[in-house]
Amino acid sequence: MGRQLMRNLKKLALELEKNPESFNRQKLLEQINAAKENARAYSFAVALNFVMESTFGKNSFSLDYSKKDLLEGLFQLGYFYSVRNRDSLAHLIASMGTDIVDGDLANDKYALKLMFLRMMTAFEMGLEEETKEYYRKLIKLDKDVPKDISFDYYNALGLVSAQLYNDETSYKYYRKALKFAEDSRRKAVIQINIADLHYANGEYDESIKLLEKLNVPDYPSFVGYAETGKLKIFLIKSDLIAASKAVKKLEKLNDSRPYWIDYWYSYVFLGHYYLKLGNKIQALNYLEELKLYPDYDNNKYIQGEALVLEAAIKSASGKKIEGLKKSIEAYNLLKNYRTASPHLRDLVKNLQNSAIKIFEDLLNELSKSDDYTAAHTMRVSQLSFMIGKNLKLNRPQLFNLAMGALLHDYGKMMVPSEVLNKPAELNDDEMESVRKHPTFGASYLQHLDFPAEIVNIVKHHHERFDGSGYPEGLTKNQIPLLVQIVAAADVFDALTTDRPYRKALSFEEAREYMKQKGNNIASEKIIKMLLKLTEQDMFKKKEVEFKTICVPIIEEILQK
Hints:
The chain has helices at 2-18, 25-34, 39-56, 67-82, 87-99, 109-124, 128-139, 150-164, 167-179, 184-200, 204-213, 220-236, 240-256, 264-276, 280-291, 300-316, 320-334, 341-369, 371-390, 395-406, 417-420, 428-435, 437-447, 452-460, 481-495, 507-521, 524-533, 546-558. Helices cover 70% and strands 0% of the residues.
């Protein structure tokens, strides 16, 4: 009877998730009445009704239950959704539970369970600060944890510690969890987690040994975790023969049990495997499957892994810069997940080397045409990067900013050098030729599949905040932030550099010019930051080299 009640209630929980607006509350009331003699089923039913009322504003049923009943039910319901890969819904329910816990129930078993469910679902969704908040709360309750939930408690602390803190602490928690692992399933959980920790530390042989020892044929999720763990190590070691065996097992599992817990994780490395074989179509298929995961839009970790795979596909397709951009976006999402690091670090390093070579070749080409412009663009890139960094831009923005600044004058390749270096005032035709260089450069880089953000910087760096610029006469917030930064840095460096038709202003004179006229060029906060930074002597140096200016910028953007 009890099992049938729980099956009926779980069926209703799935209906609530799929279509809350048409959810049949009368059917729920019938199940609530039927479950009154079964404490576990009644708690689950009460929680389901509570979520329905709280989230969708439905009228309350008059039900008799204690706060303990509700906490137990909310944990059951949240856990039910979490094992079905519905982390955002599980997190919502865990949050409801922790929000109603008061002082008398702070150490209640289900209050504690809701706390670590909230911590783990926040972790899965990439909510770092919330994860750390509940981690700190939970470690203070160590002595109050009931024995029957000690395994889950210590395992959860080990998982978060492994990703966000340090190895020794996580090993300590895993060892404690093992003391409460009373069956082979729980022991396997700890083995898998320790194997993942070895992977994060680059201890691949130790990780493989642990995964090979697993003996859990009746648990599809453990088979999935183990084979995915092996696959990602074999890919790093370029052992495609061993990798193919793991792939065969994973694809068989995904065909027979397609929704094992965290099944999406296998798609990441199956995609990387097929890419290593040169099968970009199959890699793309797995990328698309990954993006169809029900909680994709709410899970930063999954989004990050998808970007890693997408970056690798872009790179393999010859789109190195687009690949680097995607990998930086991934890095921004995954930088705090230590077990995501090894394959991402390798990809970023390879793409970084490719990008440095691409940019160096482009600048060498520009230098042959106009040595001043090549040096000028490097100085503008350095100043733009420092402005963006001090304005707290994120890594993808800093990458686009620095690289866009580096190439902002690339269109001058199409302008005759005698016009660029003419020691007298330009005539109308010559001026028109010079004014076309932003669109020339943007068109060329667009043809090379550069990211749109970089192309926009190249195209619009002569736009002005007061609307007096070109090619489109954009004004104020019509001009993207990154473009405004490069425009300001471009003007400042041009003012302080000798040209054939005029002598440079002194730094003091240029700074005074920017104080007086800067707000015509870019927003006030950008001009203020430029003036603050140009008090430093480092920006007075005019002799620059690619390896001392641009390479450190790229490396800083990509550092952990």
